[in-house]
Write a structure and sequence with these properties.
By secondary structure, the protein is of the alpha/beta class. Helices cover 45% and strands 8% of the residues. Strands 3-2-1-4-5 form a five-stranded parallel sheet, sandwiched between helices. Keywords: Chromophore, FAD, Flavoprotein, Lyase.
C-alpha cells in the first residue's frame, strides 16, 4: 500500500495559526499539510515536571488543535529526540516538503541542520523562513557588512529599513486553510508527555497601557506592563502585527522590540556570548562566587527590599518587572561579586519569558561584559532605586509580607560593596 504524499509544517517558536510565514507558504503547497509539533526530549529532560512553560506550550497547542478540528484537521504531536521522531515520520509518510520558521539559538541551528540533512537524504525538500523577527541575521549591518555591536546605530538602521517598507507584510494564512491534511490525530494530555499542571500561569498580553508606556514602565507597583514577552518567546503573537501596530503607537515601546532583535543578532553573530564574556578583557576579574550568598539572592533574603521583592515575585510567578530585573542583576554581580552566568542560569530556570538572546544580553549588560553594556563602575544602589520607583513601598509589601514586622538588615553594606566591585573590576580588566 503506497504512502500518502504530504507536506509537513513544523511548529516550534510560532504557536499560532495566523500570520505565520512558514505556515502560509506550506499551505500553498500542492500536497496536503500535516501540522506537527515535537516535544523535544533534549530540552524536556532537563526541566522539572511542573515546568510552567511546558504547560503554556501545551495550552497553546491545544488551542491550535481546537481551531484545526473546526476545519476537519488536527495537530500531530510527537515526543522524543527530534531526529528520531523525524526518522519515523519519514517512514510513515511520503513527505515531499517540510516547512518551518527559523530559530536562531545555537542548539536550534544545530538541530535544524541535522534535520535538513536527514530530509535531503530522503529526497524531501526543506524550506525555512524568517518569522520571529522583522530583520534577521545579516539584514542590519554596518557599511562594511559586519554586525553592529552598539544598539543606537543598529536601531537607526533598523528604523530606516523598516520605514522604507512599512507596514511589513502580514500573511493571510486563513485563506489557505482548506489545504490542511484531513485527519483526526489524538491530542496528548500534559500527563501523557510526562508533565503536570503548574500553579504558575502565563498571563494574557495587554496593550491598553502602551500609549503612555514611557511614563509608567519603570514603576512595578502600577502593574501596567504588556505581559507580551512570553507570547513573543513562544510565538503566540505575530511580531509583524505587533511592530506595525507599535510603530504608530509608541516609540519607546517599539524600541524595546528593536532591542529584542539586536540581542538576537548578537547571539547569532557571536554565539560565544551564551557562556563567555562578549568583552574578553573582562575575563580576568576575580569573582567571589559565594554559594551561600547566591542562595540568599535566589530566595529573596538579602535584606534589600527591592532585590528581595523581585526575587520573590520571580519565584512565585515566573515574572519580574524589567526595572527590578536590572536592580537584582546589578546586586548579584556588583554587590555580591558573583558571575553573571550564575544569575543568567537561575533566570533561565525560572522566567516564563526566558529567551536566550535577551537573557544573556541583559545579564552581560548588567555585568559590563557585553556589547553596548553599562560601564563597570555603574553600581545600582537598591535603596535609591526603591525610593525612585517604589517610594510608597507598594510593590515591596506585595511580595514581602513581613516587611513591616521588622525586616532584616542588608547582608552587605552598599558603599563597601560598591568600592569592592569597582576595585575588583579595575584590577581584573585585562589591558
Amino acid at each position: 500500500m503506497s504512502k500518502q504524499e504530504v507536506s509537513i509544517f513544523w511548529f516550534r517558536r510560532d504557536l499560532r495559526l495566523e500570520d505565520s510565514v512558514g505556515l502560509f507558504q506550506a499551505l500553498r503547497s500542492k500536497y496536503p499539510v500535516i501540522p506537527l509539533f515535537i516535544f523535544d526530549d533534549s530540552i524536556l529532560d532537563s526541566l522539572p515536571k511542573n515546568d510552567a512553560r511546558v504547560g503554556f506550550i501545551h495550552d497553546s497547542l491545544s488551542k491550535i488543535n481546537t481551531q484545526l478540528q473546526e476545519i476537519g484537521s488536527s495537530l500531530l504531536v510527537k515526543k522524543g529526540k527530534t531526529f528520531n521522531v523525524w526518522q519515523l515520520l519519514l517512514q510513515e509518510y511520503d513527505v515531499k516538503e517540510v516547512f518551518f520558521n527559523k530559530d536562531y539559538e545555537p542548539y536550534a541551528i544545530q538541530r535544524d541542520t541535522a534535520i535538513c540533512e536527514l530530509l535531503e537524504t530522503n529526497k524531501t525538500i526543506a524550506y525555512s523562513f524568517k518569522d520571529q523577527v522583522i530583520f534577521e541575521e545579516k539584514e542590519i549591518t554596518k557599511a562594511d557588512g559586519l554586525p553592529y555591536t552598539v544598539y543606537t546605530p543598529f536601531k537607526n538602521k533598523w528604523l530606516e529599513k523598516y520605514k522604507s517598507m512599512a507596514p511589513v507584510q502580514e500573511y493571510n494564512t486563513e485563506s489557505h486553510f482548506s489545504n490542511f491534511h484531513k485527519n483526526s490525530f489524538d491530542f496528548p494530555t500534559l500527563e501523557q508527555i510526562g508533565f503536570e499542571e503548574s500553579p504558575i500561569k502565563v498571563k494574557p498580553h495587554n496593550l491598553k497601557f502602551i500609549a503612555n508606556y514611557q511614563d509608567i514602565r519603570d514603576f512595578p507597583a502600577l502593574d501596567k506592563t504588556s505581559y507580551l514577552s512570553p507570547h513573543l518567546r513562544f510565538g503566540t503573537v505575530s511580531v509583524r502585527k505587533l511592530v506595525n501596530w507599535a510603530f504608530h503607537k509608541n516609540d519607546v515601546f517599539l524600541s524595546e522590540l528593536i532591542w529584542r532583535e539586536f540581542f538576537m543578532q548578537i547571539l547569532f553573530s557571536f554565539p560565544k556570548v551564551v557562556t563567555q564574556n562578549f568583552k574578553s578583557a573582562y575575563d580576568g576579574i576575580e569573582w567571589r562566587n559565594n554559594e551561600e550568598d547566591f542562595k540568599r539572592w535566589c530566595s529573596g533574603t538579602t535584606g534589600y527590599p527591592m532585590v528581595d521583592a523581585g526575587m520573590r515575585q520571580l519565584n512565585e510567578t515566573g515574572y519580574m518587572h524589567n526595572r527590578v530585573r536590572m536592580v537584582v542583576a546589578s546586586f548579584l554581580i556588583k554587590h555580591l561579586m558573583i558571575q553573571w552566568q550564575w544569575g543568567e542560569a537561575y533566570f533561565a530556570e525560572k522566567l516564563l519569558d526566558y529567551d536566550m538572546s535577551a537573557n544573556v544580553g541583559n545579564w552581560q549588560w548588567a555585568a559590563g561584559t557585553g556589547c553596548d553594556a553599562a560601564p563597570y563602575f555603574r553600581v545600582f544602589n537598591p535603596e535609591i532605586q526603591q525610593k525612585k520607583f517604589d517610594e510608597k513601598g507598594i510593590y515591596i509589601r506585595k511580595w514581602i509580607k513581613e516587611f513591616d514586622l521588622g525586616y532584616g538588615k542588608p547582608m552587605v553594606e552598599h558603599a563597601m560593596a560598591r568600592d569592592r566591585a569597582i576595585a575588583t573590576y579595575k584590577a581584573g580588566i585585562l589591558k
